[in-house]
Design goal:
This protein is α/β, with parallel strands linked by helices. The protein has 2 domains: about 140 residues; about 140 residues, Rossmann fold (3-Layer(aba) Sandwich). The protein contains 12 helices and 12 strands. The strands form 3 sheets. A 6-stranded parallel β-sheet has the order 8-7-5-9-10-11, sandwiched between helices. Strands 2-1-4-3 form a 4-stranded parallel β-sheet, with helices on both faces. A two-stranded antiparallel ribbon has the order 6-12. Helix 1 packs across helix 11 and helix 10 crosses helix 11. The radius of gyration is 20 Å and the shape is globular.
């Protein structure tokens, strides 16, 4: 039976990040019996702080949410509850380190959860509920593979990892050598000659990669980059995946692994060494070291 006390998760980031936050909500509901709602208060910065370099995010998981799970929580209310938060009354709980098992030790007074909650354990715990929600949605059911295409998908995350100094400093832009090594490993492993490049900058990614392969032997195609759901579906339906250090890639890997997809993931996950791999990676995935590249690789 659900606790009448509601707890709100503030959504942040793009599709991949919002999926982690949604899974965290299902986890909290299961573990603590709390009624969980989701708000968009932090998806867009206040008007006074908007600049040309500000990331504007949209609500990407609307189709997964039931009517009672949507709640409008203002930034002002979050700030007010932060001011009231003490060590004894934790109205607002903020995930400050991936190393913490925050969702297992929630205070009954907690009203707001802020964080990315990127842990394989949280997602696996609610796998059945999560896939049920996916399969009830037109957009999200397309992400769940029933068979895998005999191809190697390479997800090349550029975009803000390249153009935004703060994002590049935190995440690190992977050198092209990581993608090439990962693809060649999977070519040998799967005996597959088809490569699909999926990127937020498709033509640039293609230019970076094509010269490293014998095009007489290897067929290379590229996504259009116009639809995030189509791009994620291409990745999740591939027999081999060279992932970027991106939550978008992570979900493709998670969705395709049960069908036997061969997945390569980069280390370090962030620009600086962290415990991320310990919490994010499936033991079945192949981990390759990556070199951090400059902006103009």
């Amino acid at each position: 039976m659900k606790n009448k006390s509601k707890i709100n998760i503030t959504l942040m980031g793009g599709l991949g990040n919002q999926l982690f936050q949604f899974a965290a909500g299902l986890y909290v509901s299961r573990q603590h019996g709390r009624t969980v709602t989701f708000s968009t208060a932090l998806l867009q910065p206040p008007k006074i702080l908007k600049t040309n370099k500000t990331s504007i995010r949209n609500l990407m998981i609307q189709e997964l949410l039931e009517l009672e799970e949507t709640q409008s929580t203002s930034r002002l209310r979050i700030l007010f509850l932060k001011l009231l938060t003490t060590s004894r009354r934790k109205y607002v709980v903020i995930e400050r380190d991936i190393d913490t098992e925050l969702l297992d030790f929630l205070d009954s007074n907690s009203l707001i959860l802020i964080g990315y909650f990127q842990k394989l354990r949280y997602v696996n715990t609610v796998q059945s509920e999560l896939l049920e929600r996916f399969n009830s949605s037109r957009s999200f059911t397309s992400l769940v593979p029933k068979i895998l295409e005999q191809r190697i998908a390479i997800h090349v995350r550029l975009g803000d990892y390249s153009s935004n100094e703060a994002a590049r400093s935190f995440h690190g832009l992977s050198d092209v050598s990581y993608f090439v090594e990962g693809a060649k490993l999977l070519i040998n492993c799967l005996n597959c000659k088809r490569i699909l490049i999926v990127s937020d900058e498709p033509e640039r990614a293609r230019m970076l990669l094509e010269s490293h392969f014998d095009l007489a032997e290897i067929q290379i195609t590229c996504n259009s980059g116009s639809n995030e759901f189509e791009d994620l579906a291409m990745l999740s339906h591939s027999a081999g995946l060279v992932a970027s250090n991106s939550s978008f890639s992570w979900w493709a890997a998670w969705l395709s692994t049960p069908l036997g997809s061969q997945v390569v993931v980069p280390s370090p996950w962030f620009a600086e060494a962290s415990q991320a791999e310990k919490y994010l990676f499936n033991d079945r995935w192949k981990v390759l070291p990556r070199r951090i590249s400059g902006k103009d690789q």
